[in-house]
Amino acid sequence: MNSTTIGLDIAKDTFHAVSCNIAGKMVKKKLSRSKVLPYFANRPACIVAIEARDSAHYWAREIEKLGHLVKLIPSQHVKAFLIGNKNDFNDALAIAVASRQPHIKEVCPNTIEQQDSQALHKARKLAVRQRTALCNQIRGLAAEYGISINQGVSTIRKHLAIWQSEQWTKLSTLFKHLLFQLTEQLNMLDVSIDVFESMIKT
Predict the structure, then answer these.
(1) Which whole-number Å values give the CA distances from 178 to 72, 175, 183, in the listed order?
(2) Which of 129, 73, 76, 78 shows the shortest CA–CA distance to 106?
(3) Contact 193, 124 (CB under 8 A)
(4) pLDDT tens digits, residue range 53-109?
(5) What distance in Å separates the CA atoms of residue 42 and residue 129, rounded to the nearest whole number?
(6) Is 193 helix (H, G, I), strand (E, B) or coil?
(7) Contacts of 176 (CB under 8 A, 6+ apart)
């Protein structure tokens, strides 16, 4: 394996790479997103160090397919090796230097299956958070009409059915239409959460 270590600072559009070799020579390279993989495809096998954040696991898998050894470095260990002002190239250099420290334990890149599992849990967590926010919004709107109810999704569902009934005359027709739309949103979130939970169990 080539002795070169490349520190790669990943981003949404523009990536920054800094390579360090035994001779101490440092080469800086700015890469657009579409040029990242071709850049590594045309280089001898080497160590590629990436900070373990955002899409790092994706890039680790793709760069490893090109024959390189990828090291994912925990973010908290990179900052200690930052030299000079914080910028993309200095960040890439800090990542490369941190990757050469024997006491720093690298992160194993996630497999597709592991990433799928994490994505499912994150999606479910988001849906639960959105449902909680929606229920709090409904409680707040009802309070403006002098109606106070306890927290809880089941409590909200129970009162939504009551408030929209013809027998409930304390609310205007327009507000009942609004509650109907909010009920539809709540039902959609319930379905999403159920689907995510089923997929997680599977």
Answers:
(1) 49, 5, 9
(2) 73
(3) yes
(4) 889 999 999 999 999 999 999 999 998 888 878 888 999 999 999 998 989 999 999
(5) 45
(6) helix
(7) 163, 164
